[in-house]
Amino acid sequence: MPKVAVPWKGFCRERAVVSDAPVLPVGDDKRIMVESMFDGIAPRYDRLNRVISLGLDKGWRRRTVRALCLPAGARVVDLACGTGDLCDDLFAAGFRPFGFDMSAGMLASAHTTAPLVRSDVLVLPVPDGSVDGVTCGFALRNFTDLPTFFTECARVLQPGGRFAAVDAAEPEHVIVRMGHHIWFRRVVPWIGGRLSGSAAAYRYLPASTAYLPGGPALIGQLRAAGFGSVERRTMMGGAVQLLTGTRVRSEGEA
Ligand SMILES: C[S@@+](CC[C@H](N)C(=O)[O-])C[C@H]1O[C@@H](n2cnc3c(N)ncnc32)[C@H](O)[C@@H]1O
Fold this sequence. Notes:
With 254 residues, this protein is of the alpha/beta class. Helices cover 42% and strands 20% of the residues. Helix 2 (27-52) packs across helix 7 (174-196) and helix 3 crosses helix 4 (85-92).
């Protein structure tokens, strides 16, 4: 993947003067920014995750793995695997995980023993219908094109294969949303800035939930990509969402 100058670095200094909200890039600018940002925070990513989720992220990932409802020994690709937390949980549940991520820094900081591949998950080096399950943890909002991602997941899954993705969400209840905003948009960037040295990254992470469409639209995108039995459950008062689906057999498929 080519390394080029990062136009967003520091989230556009000129604009930061008038607003502390990061500018959210799109397309290639977003992909380059995301890769560079995760390369930069990778060595401190796991510790920060524990702190900003108050240790709850581990449980959310385990729940994601359980939601696959697959038998032991199933081949599961963990997409945008980062440092490999979900891969470890997949191993612990008796699956055969393979991780994919585009950030060399995140892969270099990985702690999992699962095989890891550096790849853009929108164009996976995986044959059609070759895996039983797909997981994705806290990465949907980082992709440049969600429908393409869901279609790629459906392509690599065999019919009947399972998809489970966990990510941040906006709580619906106004009081919960206010509390969540204070934590996620004020406290997290402050803590992130101090512990990771990159306040910009930890302003981007909460702000990037704005990239995610609402629940009904996400469900619609999964169905359009070839998934049935699509469900969306929320946790933590709606601050975290778990999306699941089953790859349907398309016409002409054996
Ligand atoms: C918030 S981290 C999540 C890491 C891990 N899944 C977890 O649960 O902690 C998001 C990850 O998505 C990866 N990522 C974002 N866009 C990607 C893409 N198009 N292809 C591959 N990896 C991508 C980043 O490199 C980063 O490691």
